[in-house]
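#struct-help
A.M.: can someone run this one for me? Single chain, 377 residues.
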Amino acid sequence: MKLLVGAYRELSAELLRERHHRRVQALDCIAFLTYRCTSCCRTCTIWQREGSGMAELTREQWLELVPGLAQYGIRSFEIFGGDALLRKEVIFDLTERLTERGIASYFPTNANLCDRDAVERLVGAGLGTVYLSIDDVDEMHDRVRGVPGGFSKVAQALEHFSAVRGCGERPYIVICTTLSSLNFRNFPKLLDFLSGYPVQAVYPRPLGEFSAANVAASRLDGKLPEPYFASSDGSSHLMSPEDLVEMREMIREVRSRSYPFYVNWRTYYSTTDRTFLCGEYPLCHCRVASTVLTINPNGDVVPCPFFRSYVLGNLTRESLGAIWGNPHHREFLAAQRQGRLAICRNCNTRAYYTSLTETLGYYAKRALERTGLYHAL
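D.P.: on it. Structure tokens below:
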């Protein structure tokens, strides 16, 4: 029954996304309040953008954007970074304004700045979902994240959200874990640790690692992409064939267990062995560039989080309706469709905004798994 309910809910959502995709109409939003970060992750380079010199919108400017986004029809807003809590003068009031306008708020965080006061203010502002990033347990988490004390801070954040939320349903607490050669073996230990907290779901995610060759082959209108999902320590963290065999066995073992939360393997149904060995995903038509608005810290609108210099317009000077779907935007979408953006082969963001066909395929595979005729993972 849960599978049928999930299928109905997701297929309804994908029908809506499909309509918006065909119209080139934004439905969701990813907003970078800042590129500055308090982590130095080995699998991400966004913290190395700090010297980019890009201006950041003021509190007043961010708040002024919300009515226009609501009027346009944006339904969700991901408060992103860097570490968005470096913009404490913005994030609490922005979350409250989104809540007032009926826009669902999502907040991914490394929890480095999630002290009790910050959590109380986020919950009070009506935050809808918090995505706590946890990659391992104890000092192994700190090793992946590149800063000491990170695991103790995220454990404290879990305590704070649990206590402040109390018996309420918001925010949903979701744990995001990127599985790579650095940490996949300890994933069962992490699940055991999380079993002591009121977590709604755990999302294991495949590693995103863009190749330098694909970045160089993706120049468009003189602009190169700048994907931040890349190694920052000079070493690839993709898996070896032996690692992949071991990880598949770990997944089978985990899926045979019962946990007090939902472990969502959805994105793993969009992968092949090459995803883990080479960082490449099956090429499909992208719904991100057509339906997911990305806002840079200075208010620039771009069609892809990894193409921050391909600017369609700026929301402090133009309306979203005048920007999204303009000729410059449609040139980008045409380049995608024609296969001229090689970085799309390495993109795992697309797996979170799937097409109707992919969603149908996912639930077909899940149904076959129930009969024992299919083993995807």
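A.M.: thanks! The mean pLDDT is 92.
D.P.: also worth noting: The chain has one domain: 1-371.
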